[in-house]
Amino acid sequence: MQKTTQKTSYSGFAKCSCIVLSFILSGILSVRAQEQIPANSPYKNPGLSIEQRVDDLLMRMTPEEKVGQLSTLLGWPMYTKTKNGVVASEVLKTAVATQNIGALWGTLRADPWTQKTLQTGLNPQLAAKATNAIQKIAVEESRLGIPLFLAEEAMHGHMAIGTTDFPAAIAQASTFNPDLNQKMGAAIAAELRAQGAHIGYGPILDLAREPRWSRVEETFGEDPYLIAEMGLGLIQGFQGSGIDQKDRVISTLKHFAAYGVSEGGHNGGAVHVGERELMQAYMYPFKKAIDNGALSVMTAYSSVDGIPSTAHKKLLTGLLREQWGFKGFVVSDLGSIEGIKNDHHAAATLEEAAALAMNAGVDVDLGGKGFDDALFSAFKAGDVSEERLNEAVKNVLRLKFEMGLFENPYVDEKLPAKVVRNREHTALAKEVALEGITLLKNEGNLLPLSKDLKKIAVIGPNADTMYNQLGDYTAPQDPEYIITPLEGIRAKWPNAQVTYVKGTAIRDTTQTDIPAAVAAAKEAEVAIVVLGGSSARDFKTEYLETGAASVSSKEDELLSDMESGEGYDRSTLDLMGKQLELLQAVAATGTPTVLVLITGRPLLINWPAKHIPAILDAWYPGSQGGHALAEVLIGDYNPAGRLPISIPRSVGQTPVYYNHWWPKRRDYVEESAAALYAFGHGLSYTKFEYSGLTISQSGNGKDTAFDVSVTVENTGDHDGDEVVQLYLRDEVSSVVTPVKQLRGFKRIHLAKGESKTLSFKITPEDLALYNVDMDFVAEAGSFEIQLGASSQDIRLTDTLTLTETIRIKN
Q1: Is 333 a residue of the active site?
Q2: Same structural domain for residues 405 and 449?
Q3: Would the keyword Cell cycle be found if you checked this record's keyword annotation (predicted)?
Q4: Do 611 and 721 share a domain, yes or no?
Q5: How confident is the model at residue 540, as a pLDDT?
């Protein structure tokens, strides 16, 4: 007891001494803050190494300047539109002068939350002028002249006016084409950089195993391997061979960690996963991304096993930096530092929350309220060390130097006119939409439809509602550049009589005219019914400080369509409103009916799966989705999309992801335990046969490799793509493993009658698991290899044998 008392007394004395010393240093550094910086200062010399420049600049910074460098403020108040253009706002000038800010977020963002419209926001040309004006204040009116980082939302295109809107991430994943994602990422990066942005928020690497969760659309689905491969495509597109290239940006991975499986599907809710599952599944895509050079990571709103993600030192420092060797910077999600106190109640004060986040490994505060005064107070109190503060600042400055911002902080204001939403990017948006459209059912080969149709009924709330095609995190759009399904169909059948009836809204039941839809269907040769969901925000929706929408609304006359998108968690997955009633009434006419789903999450479609002959899932297909859908309907394009997430039969059945752990799931009293449509499912207008599966081994130890080859032949009547999927099953293991897991896929094009032989390489890392001691090892034993067209459509199987246990460094 006496030792404890003495230790406490000594600690109190040491802390007091630190506080006194900090005040002395503050006095010295306040004088330093008035010093002029010589033009020949080493940090201004591009001939020196980045580390030399960082060290020199850091040495000159006051604690206030260091703390300020870690603040990322909301960017849209930082410019003012004038009659002649755009200028930096007084808000920005004050922030630079008094807060020494290091970055802005969403400067060019426009949406109902920011209150930036097509009229009040910035087109790409004005955006470049605005970012130049903003950088000019930071560079020329601050003591050290440190340029700002400008970060923007960029998951399916830059969230700004006049940019290219690509399909949502869940639709991107349906392509099973990482190379296409890389092309898309490069296009988005070019648009961002041309307007003066440096950081793109994306990809989202969360596993979506809870379909009630509002943000499923932003993910690449339920499978760690697919998420990793699609994510790497986007990262490589964003960052290219280096961020010193003037058309590349820093990629920020979201959300660290296990954000997509919160309890009850509540956005930001508690996450309950064991350490083995966390590492084996949820961390797998992040590890792949870090190994491939991703430079920024964003924390999550949720907690993992009782520890807020933004204060999780074991993950942010122990795993991310010390074990994985991450060299970039960690940024909080908007408001998540304050959330340690206000949401999780894991801190008593904002100063304590700031210290917890900083000491856990968070380098940058998104929003500007989490660090700032709170972090400075924690630093002065000795709760954050100078060493840790310096480390965080260096993680940011290092990338500013690497990007060349000190030499080239401005952009060519004529460039956006050439780059942003150009013909190539628009064509690419259509290509992604085409490859992502998934044919779930095609009874009697109803599709493709005849090119000679004379009367077509297009029905449903998503047939001609522009914003319902685009998903969440979408800026205001010029209707000229957004093609709805109705517009695409009319363009493809120019000589047909195309009758459009909305029939009903997504949620609101007062906007319903089912009799009109029935009358149109009766007169048509085919009825195309476009249903689903919506993430379309409007100006009547209320928003939280984080930008998430609030479902609690005032007594509006009409309900918005929005039932998905951040903040719109659901307790059921039914088609909302009177959509199913509309579909049933149309089908009852006897007119051949095609159901098109445009949505952000899997919805319950048991009745359509039983009664509707043809079903297409387009997710949110983006700006060119209408053209893409029409090409699939008419047969100009043979669909080959695959489900990146399983479609359940009921909410009570969830979670229903295919790669659950053993044992095999038993059926319920009421229904099957199997998904209605399983991961990887997707049909074609042609047929493919698999043959000639062979497995050969080479090398030994960590260099062991198994080469798996298979021949695929197009035996049908149409040219088309096939997505060949390789699954692996560990037959006996020291810990429980998944019943199967994806470990390879290839999308190939085959003309009718053509065949190709494909090769896959399986390494010890592909076979590895975390054993009882949490060592990452490939255990000796037998593994079943499964080749097929989906997780449930396995065509060929064989076995490989690993003769020795191999430890993998992880």
Answers
A1: yes
A2: no
A3: no
A4: no
A5: 56
Residue 1: per-residue pLDDT: 33
Alpha helices, H only, 240-371:
275-277, 284-291, 313, 336-342, 350-360
- Residue pair 698/809 in contact by the 8 Å Cβ criterion: no
Cα radius of gyration (the chain) = 28
Domain identity same for 536 and 394: no
The token pair that represents 688 in the structure block? 């493919």
pTM assigned to the model: 0.94
Residue 790 belongs to domain with CATH number: 2.60.40.10
Assigned domain for 426 exists? no
* pLDDT for the residue numbered 15: 43
* Structural domain includes residue 681: no
Residue-range definition of the domain harbouring residue 533: 437-653
Do 166 and 421 contact (CB within 8 A), yes or no?
Answer: no
Contacts (Cβ under 8 Å, ≥6 apart) of 284: 224, 225, 227, 228
Report the distance separating Cα 630 and Cα 647, nearest Å.
24
pLDDT lower than 70: segments of the chain: 1-34, 539-557
Residue 763 CB burial class (10 angstroms; 0-12, 13-18, ≥19): middle
Q: How far apart are CA 484 and CA 114, in angstroms?
A: 26
Inter-residue contact 249 to 405 (CB < 8 Å): no
Written as one letter, the residue type at 469 is Q
The β-bridge partners of 707 are 696, 761
- By residue count, the chain amounts to 810
Written as six digits, the tokens of 437 are 């459209």
Distance CA 384, CA 366 (A): 19
- Other CB atoms within 10 Å distance of the CB of residue 516: 14
Catalytic residue among 333, 372, 383, 617: 333
Which phi-psi region, left, alpha or beta, contains residue 359 (left: φ > 0; alpha: ψ -120 to 50)? alpha
Q: What is the 3-state secondary structure (H, E, C) of 219-253?
A: CCCCCHHHHHHHHHHHHHHHHCCCCCCCCCCEEEE
pLDDT of residue 84: 86
Structurally, the chain folds into a number of domains equal to 3
User: What is the predicted pLDDT for the residue at 20?
Assistant: 44
* The pLDDT value given to residue 546: 61
718 shares a domain with 639 = no
CATH code of residue 588: 3.40.50.1700
